[in-house]
Each structure stands twice: as structure tokens, then as C-alpha cells.
Amino acid sequence: MQKTSWPASFISAINLKYSGVQILKTINKYIYKELIAPFLFGVAAFTGIFVGTDLIFEMTEYYTEWGVEALTLLRLFFLSLPEIIVLTFPMASLLGTIMAYNRLSGDSEITAMRAGGISILSLVLPALIMGLLTSGITVGITEFVVPGANYQAEQIIYQFKHGEQRPDTQYDLFLNPLDSRTSRPDYMLYAKSFNAESGRMEGVVVQSFEDGSPSRVLEAESAEWLSDGWYFYNGTVYFLDRENRSPALEFSSYRSRESIHSPSQAGKLGKDIDEMNIRELEDHIALIEEQGRTAYEEKVELHHRFSIPLASFIFALLAAPLGIKPQRSAGSATGFGISIIIIFIYYILMTVGDALGSQGSIAPWFGAWLQNIVIFTVGSGLLYHTAKH
Question: How many separate domains does the chain show?
Fold first, then answer.
């Protein structure tokens, strides 16, 4: 059987292409190594700034005013770190990318790579991938670590300030969900005290509505959540009409006819936002809107669970073309200074967006993403301009 004879030019082209792919992989590995060290430096530097300017003062106050033991302070310190890391990862991504590409540019390595046929986009791609990976890790920390750490920290702080564990009881609970069909009140509930853990309420008043008009009022000393709903104890039900308010019955035990929220649902109204994961926050927003109230601030916070972590990618997009520009005199101090300026602008934009979004002056999602949109636009423009020249 006769063997196929390939043209020499074709074989040469394949070898050249294979060689080019291998060279690009080698260069990418080299750039990744250059990015990791300054990124870790940035994490340490910015975490140190947050710790030194805020956390240490809090720990000192707890020790001097409340006499908190060293082991408790140490535990509080580590419980506070996840929330700080969520903020420092994007900053470290910015600093690490600028420093890495400044070093490569200052030593003329970028020039040599481009002379070898490597495009700007190929040179920037490792930074973008690393930024995207950092964003994903930060979302995971925000969702699975930060809420639990914040909850435990608040429990510890409450305990040494009040000498007891933080109670699960809420006082003056008020629920007023609207009927989705009519946008009128479904029911109104007031409880003097409410405990989500035990599923009990004390001093309860429930006003029911029919077609948006009050139909009856239930008053009870207490209420308990059982498997099939709320049961009220020792109270009176009144029927309402346009002319009088007459008692219908007195009871020692009465099962509610209303579809009143369960303890776990109602309990979310008293939970701190920074102790909620994304799903809990979404449920919390839905519950607030059921009461006929706006949840602008909560919606801004929900979008922040993604916009702040994604800043690692956005900053890498901006930092890479800034670092690639030839700057022979650029060093770590210059990179750090540029990073501080960009971070300052970023947080000014975020503060403005938060304020406007929380007040409803602009859409909450836009308020939460304003700083990312601006930085992404500038970064994309710089990358395009750098690639063209």
C-alpha cells in the first residue's frame, strides 16, 4: 500500500503552528507566575490596612471597655477576616496586575513578546482569567463563609456586652402583606413579642380582610405554630360590620383561618442583612415587598453580592493595559499609588450609586453596578487603544 506523501510546506506549517502554541502556553505560565506574587502581596497589604485602621481599634475597645479575654478577641479577629478579604481581593487583583505588567514592561519583556508575534490580547488574557477566577472564589466566600462568620461574631459581641446570649425574640412584630390580586391588605398582624426558634407569639392581634375591607379581629394572649398552622390561645374573635363591633366567640384554643407567615418566614424580618446568604436575602426582599414596602436598600445589597466580587475581573481589565504601557521607571511604589487612586475613584462611585439606589432615585441594580460599569468601560477602552498601537 502506497504511503501518502505530504507536501513539505504543509508539514512545516503544522510544526510552526504547534511550536507557536507551545510558546504561547509557556508565556502564559510565565505571566501567571508573575501575577501570583504581587497578588498575594496585595492581599496582605490591603488586609493589613483594614486591620490596622479599623479592626485593631475595635479589638482594643472590646478589651479596655469590656475586658474581653484574649482568646475571644482572637476568635473575633478571625471571624472578621472573611468580610475584609471580600474587599481586599479586588484591590489585590488591581495591584497585582499593575505590578506584574509594569515589571514585564520595564524589563522590555513585553516588547520582546510582541516582537515575537504575541498579541496584546494574548498577553492580557492570563490576567483576565485570574481576575475571573478570583471573582468566583470571592462570590463563594461571600455566600458560604461571610454570613455565618458575621452571625457568630454578633453572638459573641452581644454576649460579652449583655452577659447573655443574643435572644431570638423580636418585639413589636408587625406583618401587613398585600393581596397580589387586589393590592389590598391580606391581613394585619401585631405581636408584642415573637420567637422564631420556638414558634411562639405573645400579645397577638390579627385583623382579617375581605375584598379589602376589615371583616374580623382576633385578640389572643398567645399563639403557637404547629404542623398545620398557627393556633391562638385565650382570646376573642370579633366580627366587624359598618355599624358595630360585636364579639363572636371567646376561645381557649383557636386555629387561624388566615395563611399567616410561618415562624421562619416572619423571623427573617428581624435578621441582619449581613448575616443572610443570597437566597435568604431574596426571601427577605420578597417578604418586605409583600408588606407593601420598598426594599431598595436590600436590593442594592443583593446586587453587591455579585458586583463587588466581580470587581476583581473589572480591575484586571483596567490594570493590564495600564501596566503594559512602557514605564521603565515604574516600580512597586508607582503601582501601589496608581492602585490607591483607582480604588478611591471606585469607592466614590460605589458610595454615590449606593445612596441613589437605596433611595430609589435610580434602579437599585444600577446603583450597585455603577462603579463596575464605569471601570469596565474605561478598561475596555484602554485595552482596545493599547491593542491598536
Answer: 2
Q: Assign residue 202 the CATH number of its domain.
A: 2.60.450.10
Q: What is the pLDDT of residue 165?
A: 79
Cβ pair 269, 287 in contact under 8 A? yes
Question: Same domain, yes or no, for 74 and 105?
Answer: yes
Instruction: Show the cell assigned to 275.
Output: 448575616
In the chain, the amino acid numbered 104 is L
* Residue 288 to residue 286: CA distance in whole angstroms: 5
Residues 236 and 355 in one domain: no
- Do 383 and 314 share a structural domain? yes
Domain that holds residue 239: 178-260
pTM, full prediction:
0.83
**Crossing angle, helix 70-106 and helix 56-66, to 10 degrees?**
170
Task: Supply the mean pLDDT for the chain.
Answer: 87
Task: Write the CA distances from 288 to 212, 301, 368, integer angstroms.
Answer: 19, 14, 19
For residue 299, the one-letter residue type is K
22 and 126 share one domain: yes
Q: Could you report the per-residue pLDDT of 219-247, keeping only the tens digit for each?
A: 999 999 998 889 999 999 988 876 656 65
| Residues 14, 135 share a domain | yes
Residue type for position 174? F
Give tens-digit pLDDT for 332-380: 677 888 999 999 999 999 999 999 999 999 999 999 999 999 999 999 9
CA 39 to chain centre: 21
Same domain, 240 and 350: no
Q: What is the per-residue pLDDT for 21?
A: 74
Same domain flag for 238 and 357:
no
Q: Band of the pLDDT at 182, cuts 50, 70, 90?
A: confident
User: Is 294 inside any structural domain?
Assistant: no
- Indicate the residue among 230, 260, 290 that finishes a domain: 260
pLDDT value, residue 4: 46
